[in-house]
Write a structure and sequence with these properties.
Helix 2 packs across helix 3, helix 3 packs parallel to helix 4 and helix 4 packs across helix 5. This protein has 328 residues and is α/β, with parallel strands linked by helices. The protein has a single domain, classed as Aldolase class I (TIM Barrel). Helix content is 38%, strand content 17%. The strands form two sheets. Strands 1, 2, 3, 4, 5, 8, 9, 10, 11 and 12 form a ten-stranded mixed β-sheet that branches. Strands 6-7 form a two-stranded antiparallel sheet. The radius of gyration is 20 Å and the shape is globular. It is built from eleven helices and twelve strands. Bound molecules: ligand PBG.
């Protein structure tokens, strides 16, 4: 039955009709707010490439966490910027690591805010890579997978012992979800869930984050561990392995250039899917909005809706706090 019997515009005529047939909604409960913490006190240092985002010290971070929670966002994701770096990222897993201080402070002030920690070494190593650098078979400097696992395990344990509600390994080493799961279980923390950055691509869109976290690689790139952007079937293998190893939530990252992966993952797997709308995706819209080229709020809500429509339940986004206010 075609036109004129069928007129799809009928149900678009007014906002009530549109609300009634709307297929996808974004809820505040879908959002996770990434936050950056560095040592010190009273620090709130603007990140120029990510307007509205800051490096906080543990004390000012608590204030920010309170306002994120008050906006209705259920969770934050913490990234640490240490006071010193070395080849093996020691400040990532020290008992007094800055992320551990931050977790303790937030959990005390906001006990029901879910505190997730990013588990990775690139912010803590002087070479800026996500693990231990050695020489590979080709004689090139590269990240040693299995040596890195031990350090990631230590970092995840330190975060969980400090009170993290969930740990999120973002390094892309093979086997890290299984290693962290086993370690948490052995350390009597079987209740701590793992959100795995499962299909994390070697993307150009992490640029602003690397300024924010002071973590750009000092040589080479991350192509030997993060996924090659043209590959989709491989992403499904990554996700399947992470679920097998014990991941509770699996993530696709970045979001918009990889919505096909989000959709395929949602069709294939029953675990909750998260998508990370990353720093460069955010910064691009911010820059266009600052030039008056588009309406930030409309663009942001359209993007978040698209990510949900593709099949993600959770969205990690630098708009989390603003969007929660907009969605009220
Ligand atoms: C750490 C990590 C990165 C991001 C999240 N965790 C950077 C990277 O892999 O280089 C990027 C987040 C963003 O761009 O918003 N490995």
């Amino acid at each position: 039955m075609g036109f004129p019997t069928t007129r799809l515009r009928r149900l678009r005529r007014n906002e009530t009709f549109r609300r009634m047939v709307r297929e996808t909604l974004v809820y505040r409960d879908d959002l996770v707010m990434p936050l950056f913490v560095r040592p010190g006190s009273g620090v709130k240092r603007a990140i120029s490439s990510m307007p509205g985002n800051y490096q906080f010290s543990p004390d000012t971070l608590v204030e920010e966490a309170r306002s994120v929670e008050a906006a209705g966002v259920p969770a934050v994701l913490l990234f640490g910027i240490p006071d010193s770096k070395d080849a093996v990222g020691s400040r990532a897993y020290a008992a007094d690591a800055v992320v551990c201080r931050a977790v303790e402070g937030i959990k005390k002030a906001c006990p029901s805010l879910c505190v997730i920690t990013d588990v990775c070494l690139c912010e803590y190593t002087d070479h800026g890579h996500c693990g231990v650098v050695t020489e590979n078979r080709d004689g090139a400097r590269d990240v040693d997978n299995d040596a890195t696992l031990d350090l990631l395990v230590k970092e995840a344990l330190a975060h969980a012992r400090a009170g993290a509600d969930m740990v999120a390994p973002s390094d892309m080493m093979d086997g890290r979800v299984g290693a962290i799961r086993a370690a948490l279980d052995n350390a009597d923390m079987p209740e701590v869930p793992i959100m795995a950055y499962s299909a994390k691509y070697a993307s150009a869109f992490y640029g602003p984050f690397r300024d924010a976290a002071e973590s750009p690689p000092q040589f080479g790139d991350r192509a030997s561990y993060q996924m090659d952007p043209p590959n989709a079937r491989e992403a499904l293998r990554e996700i399947a392995l992470d679920i097998e190893e014990g991941a509770d939530i699996v993530m696709v990252k970045p979001a918009l250039p990889y919505l096909d992966i989000v959709r395929r993952a949602a069709d294939r797997f029953d675990a909750p899917i998260a998508a990370y709308h990353v720093s460069g995706e955010f910064a691009a819209i911010k820059a266009a909005a600052a030039n008056g080229w588009l309406d930030e709020r409309r663009a942001a809500l359209e993007i978040l809706t698209a990510i949900r429509r593709a099949g993600a339940k959770l969205i990690l986004t630098y708009w989390a706090k603003d969007a929660a206010t907009w969605l009220e």
